[in-house]
Request: fold
Amino acid sequence: MRFLKIIFFFIAFQMTAQQGGMWIPSLLDGMNEDEMQSLGSKLTAQDIYDVNNSSLKDAIGHFNGGCTSEVISPKGLLLTNHHCGFSQIQSHSSLENDYLKDGFWAMSLEEEIPNDGLYVEFIVRIEDVTEAMLAGVTEDMSPREKQSKIDINRNGVVKATQKEDWQGLKIRPFYKGNQYYLFVTERFEDIRLVGAPPSSIGKFGSDTDNWVWPRHTGDFSMFRIYADKNNRPAKYSKDNVPYKPKHFLPVSLDGIEEGDFTMVFGFPGRTNEYLPAVAVEQITQKVNPSNIAIREAALKVIDANMKADDQIRIQYASKQARIANAWKKWIGENLGIEKSGAVAIKRKFEREFTKALKAKGMEAKYGTILPEFDRLYKEFEPVNVKRNNFLEVFFRTNELMQMTFRAYQMEQALAKNPENSKAIASFKSRMERIHKNYNAKVDKGVYELVMPLYSKTIDASIYNKTAFTNMDRTLDLLKGTSAEVLEKLNNDVAYQYAKPLIKEFFTTLEPEFQRINTQINALQTTYITALMKVMPDERYFPDANSTLRVTYGKVNGYAPRDAVYYNPVTYLDGVIEKYVPGDYEFDVPQKLRDLYDAKDYGQYADKNGKLPICFLGTNHTTGGNSGSPAIDAEGNLVGLNFDRVWEGTMSDIYYDPEICRNIMVDLRYVLFIVDKYAGAKRLIDEMKLVHPKK
Ligand code: ARG
Ligand code: GLU
Reply:
């Protein structure tokens, strides 16, 4: 009987252990540690996060605020994705030195290239500051009253926190403001490019394979952190030296097999796992489809131009990748929500919640939440969709409209204070940044296809007459007194065209959006409070918010549809299968084909003599987890997270353990490329290679 009980307990654990979640590293003791160990982990909570001793967390850096990276040598060598370092690689590229196309390898410290503005941030410690942040906040306060109380509390917490002067501090809400955590950080600002494979390896399969399994992309690049002589963060200086980390990840040469434990440690950006069904419907049926249509129109023009002209290919590479990435993700998200029946599942859950409210006598207090959501989302829909579309046109796809938007902001600032010389200077530097990678012909084409999806009036002739498409003419426009600048600005045809649209955004769209969104957010906070009170035994993990998290699972394939099963590992053989000579997505470098023909894999082959490329896991990840390490049961690096599977991109809204998988590059492929392909043996030599399975 007792034995049976243990078995039952074990099975129950095995099942819940795969339900996803992104956990706070300082709170793993207990439930998470047990779950991880039941999946095969040998790590303790303290191995992962420790304030007094070095731990895994000391190797994990937030890369430029949007990706994750990890330290893999005692000399501050840093690993992240190719697509995370993409804009740096692009910025050092030219037609003569095309690092995007051919790759780049620094063969000595002296050859490593500084990157203006790039930073990497580590977490020194995490503290629960919920009590102090919510002191004096009561449920009957209005959202505004609550916020001002919280702001006052925040000042108190900041003042009371001990930290060194070179360290930073952040406080972030969790569980929609039901909890608060404080992060003491260290930000390094001298980060140099060390190496990147050619795009035909680092971006192999490009948009066709993006978000798709089976995958064969070597999506990695390498940087190095430099510090001052005291090993502290410092701005770039030629006197800086390689950073000596508190911890760096050893690299396992034994890799993974199906069923192995993996943990992904990084900075997931944003998820929304506790939305009501009505919100999920709005996202998938209204917001996503119109955003998809706008991006599709823009991509049609950009793709065609990039294929026809190498200069444009380099100029628009980053922009195109950014636009295409979310475009494809939203399509997959919609399919996954549909396929998993997420809306119906959420509705069923909401009926259970309502029942539990009744059973516990909490109907009077929380019974209005769900009907309120219905009412608010209905009111929200047209505003939300239109505002999304505005942002898509004015910020993501059309560059001339973005310029007019910035000009409008300059005009507003000058109207308030004509002496505000900063307003003109900041507009000028924005324009310079846009013009660095600008082609008016491409942008005009984008305008012609994108604008009709937002506005009834379109006039492509503005491109021939405006000053903004040319930096010299823009500089002319900015000469003279504020009054003169504003007069010239208001005579510009593109500005005349865009101004009413931008005005509408600021006078009606944005205030309406904020008004309703504030109410929705407040209700969402109450909803989480109610859920945790009424159904306390559910497994709640906080939504991603760009803070450091741990997610764990197993190496595991999946069945995307009836009778089809995807193996969790791909091999170099698959790269060669996909090879299309000269293709812009599926070309394979000669050298890689030669290594394949000779089966010259060195110490990087698996035990069957094959070279692994990518593998799948059940780790719950999202955007921002790009570049995150996949860590084995002993704390060694085995993979580099870079994507999710098409059927499972809806995991930002609804995590289904059947079809949600993250995609990682096998570290053995990374090392093989560095060593055998690039000949950058000096980098391999500074790493610590281990054989945990021997
Ligand atoms: N889908 C991955 C992510 O969300 C990779 C994106 C980069 N690759 C690309 N083809 N755009 O960031
Ligand atoms: N490629 C994504 C990133 O840049 C990771 C994939 C995902 O969204 O899970 O963070």
